[in-house]
Amino acid sequence: MDDPLKFSLADFFYNDNSSVLKPPSDFVEWMSDPRIQAGFSFFEQQLLKAPTAETEILSNLDNKKRRVINLTSYNYLGLSSHPEVIQAAIDGLRKYGLGASGAPLLSGTFDLHVQFARMLAEFKQKEDCILFSSGLGGNLGIMQGILRKGDLLLLDEKGHKSLLDGGKLSGAKVRMFEHNSVEDLARLLDENKDKRILVAVEGVYSMDGDLVKLPEIVELCEPYDNVELLIDEAHSTLMFGENGRGVAEHFGLEDKIGISFGTLSKSFGGVGGFVCSNAGIIRYLKGYASPYNFSCAPSPPIVAGLIKALEVATRDSSLRDKLWENTAYFKKNLDALNLNMGATESQVIPIIIGSSGELLFEMAAEIQKRGLFLQPVDFPAVPAHSRRFRISVSSQLTRENIDEACNIIEDVIARRLRKV
Ligand SMILES: Cc1ncc(COP(=O)(O)O)c(C=O)c1O
Fold first, then answer.
1. Distance 268 CA to ligand 1 centre (A)
2. Which of 161, 162, 274, 377 for mutating ligand 1's site (highest number of atoms within 8 Å of CB)?
3. pLDDT digits (tens, 9 = 90+) for 120-129
4. Among candidates 281, 199, 287, 217, which has minimal Cα distance to 253?
5. SS3 115
6. CATH number for the domain harbouring residue 96
7. Taking the complete model, does pTM exceed 0.85, yes or no?
8. Using a 6 Å cutoff on CB, does residue 232 contact ligand 1?
9. Which domain holds residue 414?
10. How far is the CA of 139 from the centre of ligand 1 (A)?
11. What is the pLDDT of residues 86-105, one digit of tens each?
């Protein structure tokens, strides 16, 4: 291999080895390069405490425990360790034990699951809701549960892998449209008038933090009887909209959305996924979504904690108000450093570095040694010309945390970029 740095995970998907238990030989060679290993050392670093705004990690860089300001976890509202949430989970654990010990259709449905699904349906203003043990499983489940061969999934090209994989699993045809491009989507709708179509978008796009152009997309799709709209609100539920119901609420378009998906692993601070829609299709999904009916139901103590998390996040707007206050303050400071934050409109703030993977990882190492947990995002997760850091703002961050983070970002990123 002449220059390992020219390669990425995008290059080793196909395997010409005679055994499926042997990775491709060029992959093994690539992984043995110390510079590639250094890059991979940023993965799977161990958190030693809750994913709060200040936490502790065991750094893979030097095997040292380090107190860090956490800009990477998706614990946007700090609910994962909110005292009331923890107490509810403890009570749930004592009463119900650790696991559900069964798939939902047989013995895995507890009163907690029914209560939480009802609460979510009411919150999202839909007739019914189905819970999944993971967000990814939820997206696989929707697609595989309702799309059939001959159907068409039209997915924004920046859509999450779970939406794409679900589409492939369903046997439907999957086509991507250019990110947020109403023109490209219009062309595809026009070419496929004979098919049942599901258009899938995200409320907040997870790598760029920009919002779906929902009003334009709704206007475009509405006249077609064969087209339904799904919104993945993984990064927007509990945060956007006057009542925290998400980006569809933010745009006043909830009644135009056929299927509303959310994860329970981000702002909710737990784990799992949920899908809200009309009662008929939820009933149908329960029969055909394998991640639902062939997988153990969500852990009861987690659901007990999630019920409390939903109550805490919706009883007033204080957590999301704080999140938006922190986001505005962070952006103002980053703006003053002349950093490229792309098209962000949310609490997800990219700092785009450019095409050099070496520079990205050098900066990442220095940032971490200075006490910031801010992970690098490399190609193929993002385009090769826009390697980046991605800040997840949390309501828990203090002004002091943000000031300290911005000082480190200025020293390590802004100063270096000015020289490049
Ligand atoms: C947009 C989007 N959808 C779905 C998922 C999957 O959710 P989970 O991590 O809860 O399985 C993610 C996770 O990052 C996501 O960003």
1. 12
2. 162
3. 999 999 999 9
4. 217
5. helix
6. 3.40.640.10
7. yes
8. yes
9. 33-70+318-419
10. 9
11. 999 999 999 999 999 999 99
